[in-house]
Each structure stands twice: as C-alpha cells, then as structure tokens.
Design brief:
Length: about 425
C-alpha cells in the first residue's frame, strides 16, 4: 500500500512555522544583492516540510507516546552523529564527563573508544586502569555492554553505559581479530585518576618517557620528568613512548613537542571558520633539543599523539619506530550551550609541518617494528661462567632493578629495538666527531 500525502496538517504547519525563522538566519546578507531564487536555493523548504511531517507522524502514530523535548533532542543527536564519528550532542552529564576526562579524572574502566564500520572499537586502553589490567587491546570490538548489543547504541550512549559509580561492575563482550567467539570481561569501575606521564632510566644515560594521553597538565609533567632524568645522569638518548596513546588536548600535544624543538612549525589547522585556522610553532627555550630521540607509535596512537610524531618526523628531530598510527587528524571543539549542555563538533583538520593530513592516513614509521617478545629456544644458549655452580662474582654485581629492566626489555621487543637504535646512533655520532 502506498500512502500519498499532498498537504501538511495543521500541527505540522505550526511546527514548520517555528522552524522557518531559524532557517532564514542562513540567508546571505544583504538580501537585495541576491538573485531572485537565492532564498529558495539557501532554504531547503521541502526537507524542512518533510521533517515537520515526520515529527507529526511520530507524535501521532508511534507505539508509545513521545514528548516533543525527546524528539527534538534525538533529532539534534542524529544531526551530529551522521557528520562523523567524533561529533556529538552532549547533555549536561555528558558535557561534564567530557570536561573531567580532559582534566585527568573520571569514573569508568579506562578505555578510549570510537566507531569503525559501524562497530564500537577500542582505540586504546589507558595505562594502569581496569581495562589495561584485564588485558583489553587496541582494535578489540566491543559487541555488548552488560548484555546490551552495541550495534543499537550511539558512541556517546556506549560511553555512558561504561561509566558509573566506582566499585560497581561492568560486563563487556569483546571480539578480537582472528577469533570467532567473543570474550567476556567483567571489570570493576574505578575513579580513573590518570597520570599521563611516566619516566625511568632504561640504562645509564638512556631515558624512557611514557605519555599515555594528552591532558592539560601533560607538558609540565613531561618537562619535570626530563629534568629529573637529566639530573641523575646526562641523557645520551631518549625513547618517547606514544603507543596506545588515544590523544587528548591539542595544546598539550604542542607543548610536549616544544620540549624537543627550539624552532619551526609544529602543527597547523584548517577549517571553514577563521577561528579554526591556527598555527603553532616551537619556542627557543627547550630542555631536550639535542638529545637523540626515538619515538614509538602503533595503531593505538591517535590524534594528539600523531601530531607529536608527525611534527618530530617532519622536523627530522627523531626516528619514528613501530607500526602505522590510527589516523585521526580532525580537531573537535567543545562548545557550551546556554542550557548547560554542549556540542562536540569537528571544526578543522590538522596538518603536519610539511602539509600532511593525517586524517584516515596515519603516520608511517621510519623504522617498522611489530610488537613481539624476545625468546631464546631451550637448549640453544651457550653455557657461560655465570651458569657454573660456585662461580666467583664480579666486583660490579648487576643490581636487582637492572635485572628487572632487562626482563622488561625482553618482553617488549619494540622497546628493546628502540634502545638498540639509540645506541647505534650514538656510536655513529662519536665516529663522526
């Protein structure tokens, strides 16, 4: 049966009348300078009429009564969700939650998620959170949250389900690449106080700086970490670990990059509005402008992490090692609304100093090294003096911390290769002198 509608009912007309004044705001001024058909071209009157008709039909015929407020909010959510995976309408709770996450404290399990091909995908688990401790991995697909299939949820709805009171439990079903049956994880929510920067000395003279995400305090935390390591011993090389870093605050990425550059462009953005076109350059004062640098990235390195890696790569400041990054090169602005709610709207794309757009492309490492583990086959290792019973110990015994670090390097092949590369760079540099 085909239903033909030639007229709009009175309720729909009233609704249409409320929309038209708003639509008129899009008409270019001055009107007298426009062609006669300009208003018709700029105002999609037929689409507005259809929208009013759909609104009326839902009000009258939907199986359950729906109030106008809910319908309008859903319409706004739909407008934004259909633009791209990162734009969203935020109610008051969602808006506050997003603000908290950029400050480094929020309640949940500690994962960054996104949508890919209609699926809810883990971009990265944040370090030292229930998600990372449970073994969730980048690129895992979340198929259900507490029994609710994620295919029926928007990105923001999924995030809301995963956040909750500390101490409460969350059950998620995860489908991992190469597996046919989803894995079940039960996690206990915590207050996620994420310190985004960690550091340690891998070996004398060789430092390790881990940034798990970019928060407003990250540049200052990274600066202090560099200063502490330099006080222990002059740095002969540094590994900057951005693996599984989902990004964060744009200005924080600029601030961290500035720690390693004393001049030159870091990143620029381009959008339709004048205030979305920005450019950031390095300042002369920097604590680590000449330390040999290796930057580790992988498929979980996204957004702000890609800004840092792309800038250091273009400026030939360090060697990028690992695997191709995620490829999120868009900028979202958080726009407050008068009712206490907000919009997260994609307003620009960012570009590396050489003009590369990372959006859907990612950063290609200079040296590709897949993640793995160094292992020695049983029976193949040669017997050494230290293996003999009653052997004499040398004067410089290996400290326990050094032994633990050696174990860590064996378990993290990419990190081990980055350290080897730093040592090789120093050998080449000394021979050139």
């Amino acid at each position: 049966m085909t239903l033909s509608v030639t007229k709009v009912s009175v309720p729909a007309k009233r609704f249409l009348a409320t929309l038209l004044p708003l639509a008129l705001l899009s008409v270019p001024l001055p009107l007298v300078a426009q062609p006669a058909n300009s208003v018709a071209d700029d105002l999609p009157l037929e689409e507005i009429q259809t929208f009013a008709e759909v609104f009326e039909r839902i009000k009258r015929g939907y199986v359950e009564e729906v109030d106008d407020r809910t319908l309008l909010r859903n319409a706004m959510r739909g407008m934004l969700s259909e633009l791209d995976p990162h734009s969203a309408y935020l109610d008051e709770e969602e808006y506050q939650s997003l603000r908290e996450s950029t400050q480094g404290e929020f309640g949940g399990i500690g994962i960054e998620v996104g949508t890919q091909n209609g699926q809810l995908v883990i971009i990265t688990p944040i370090d030292d959170t229930p998600a990372s401790q449970a073994g969730l991995l980048s690129r895992d697909v979340i198929v259900a949250i507490d029994g609710t299939p994620t295919e029926s949820l928007s990105l923001q709805e999924a995030v809301n389900l995963m956040r909750g009171e500390p101490g409460s439990q969350l059950r998620i079903s995860v489908l991992r690449a190469g597996e046919e049956t989803p894995r079940e994880f039960t996690l206990t929510r915590e207050v996620i106080r994420s310190e985004s920067v960690k550091h340690e000395m891998l070996e004398p003279g060789y430092g390790y700086l881990r940034i798990s995400q970019f928060q407003s305090r990250t540049p200052e935390q990274a600066r202090r970490a560099l200063e502490r390591m330099a006080r222990e011993q002059p740095l002969e090389g540094l590994i900057l670990d951005l693996r599984n870093n989902p990004g964060g605050v744009l200005q924080a990425a600029v601030g961290v990059t500035d720690l390693f550059l004393d001049q030159g462009l870091i990143v620029y953005t381009e959008g339709r509005l004048s205030d979305t076109e920005m450019s950031f350059s390095a300042s002369p004062e920097t604590p680590a402008d000449d330390v040999p640098l290796v930057v580790l990235i992988n498929s979980g390195s996204a957004s702000a992490a890609e800004i840092v890696a792309g800038a250091l790569q273009d400026q030939r400041r360090g060697v990028i090692m690992g695997t191709e990054s995620f490829g999120k090169g868009s900028v979202q602005q958080i726009m407050p609304l008068g009712n206490g709610e907000g919009l997260k709207l994609t307003t620009a794309l960012y570009y590396t100093p050489n003009g590369r757009s990372i959006q859907a492309q990612g950063i290609e490492p200079d040296v590709e090294v897949v993640r793995g583990r160094l292992e020695v086959a049983e029976g193949q290792r040669q017997i050494r003096e230290a293996d003999l019973d009653g052997h004499l110990s040398g004067q410089d015994a290996v400290p326990r911390e050094r032994a633990e670090m050696s174990q860590r390097l064996r378990e993290d092949y990419q990190l081990s290769e980055a350290l080897n590369l730093l040592k090789a760079l120093n050998v080449v540099d000394r021979r050139r002198r």
